[in-house]
Amino acid sequence: MIAASPEVRPSGSYEPTTADILIVKQYFKLLSAPLPDELIDNIIDAASYWAHTSLTVNGHTIVRADGEQVYMRTLPLAVYGTEGDFLLDKENLQGEEFVLGGLPPTELEWAAPTRAKPFRKIEFQLWSHDQGWGGENGCQGTYNGAYSWFDVSVERLQSTSYFTGSVEWPSSLLFTAVDASNLTFAQQHVNRPLLPSPSTLQKNIVAERQTTHHVITWTDLNDVKEGSPEAIAAENRGQGWKSYDGSFVRDLQVGDCITLWMRARYPGWRNEAVKAKITVFWAV
Question: What are phi and psi of 243, to 5 degrees?
Fold first, then answer.
């Protein structure tokens, strides 16, 4: 069994747990004039006081021309047992399992999200590079004409009732394509673009041999429009403008899994990933 383990965070950084948030909500109810639930929720949202899960995966993976591969998949989001920070090494896994779902010890330790759209932010961190040579003249060192990139998709289980009892979730599911698993996903929002699209998560820098660390942050408040200065800035960072329209975050549901895909296109092109981290925040 694998349990969440705290990570060392930068000085002054703090991420509340669901239990912390529930206690704060109780404090607001102890005021001489208790605040209504809607106002409490608005205050907590304004403070970005959200629960989170993160999964960091270490493992050298190469995708070559005209190939694609799942690099990692998150645990089911906002399900009991998935909160906190997890670190896995692809090359040293030996059949470990996560225990998810079931009932928490007390009501003040865990509460499933009750809002229709509870997710607030996703942060992706990628450590990767392309083949280190090639590309069109003038594109080297930029994201222009890059055919080595990452996409993400959402995979949804048929029912979150799957987690009403404790479930053993094999770590192999964090790296295996859905059609190779024994679980049935009702919706597989998996597009397989021939080329980087307006929804691309991140391109690699063209002809760069050194590993680059990219950080991409999406929120439910994003609303970037095609052709806007924000859209142009995203494209200049090697990111699809449409990935910043906010719909990916807003459309997430409890129990969804986010899958990170590696892609490369055309002879000679390669996508090499050495590490990735996905952190998801939701309102309690």
Answer: -65, -15
Yes or no: say if 273 and 126 are a contact pair by the CB < 8 Å rule: yes
User: Looking at the DSSP assignment, which residues form a beta bridge with residue 78?
Assistant: none
Q: How far apart, in whole angstroms, are the C-alpha atoms of residue 214 and residue 234? A: 13
Helix (H) / strand (E) containing 40:
helix 37-46
| Residue 44, token pair as written in the block | 């907590």
Mean pLDDT of the chain: 89
pTM summary value: 0.91
Q: What are phi and psi of 109, to 5 degrees?
A: -100, -25
Which residues partner with 73 through β-bridges? 259
Tell me which long-range contacts 18-22 makes (C-beta under 8 A, separation of at least 24).
Answer: 18/51, 18/83, 18/109, 18/110, 18/111, 18/284, 19/108, 19/109, 19/110, 21/49, 21/50, 21/51, 21/284, 22/107, 22/108, 22/109, 22/111, 22/284
HEC string of 167-214? EEEEHHHHCCCHHHCCCCEEEEECCCCCCCCCCCCEECCCCCCCCEEE
Q: For the CA atoms of 166, 171, 174, 178, what is the dihedral angle to 10 degrees?
A: -70
Asked if residues 150 and 201 have their Cβ atoms less than 8 Å apart, the reply is yes
Run of H or E residues at 231: helix 229-236
- The answer to whether 110 and 80 are in contact (CB under 8 A) is yes
Burial category of 209 from C-beta neighbours within 10 Å (exposed 0-12, middle 13-18, buried 19 and up): exposed
Q: What is the pLDDT of residues 158-195, one digit of tens each?
A: 766 667 778 888 888 888 766 544 555 555 556 788 89
Structure tokens at 73: 């998949």
Under DSSP, is residue 27 helix (H, G, I), strand (E, B) or coil?
helix
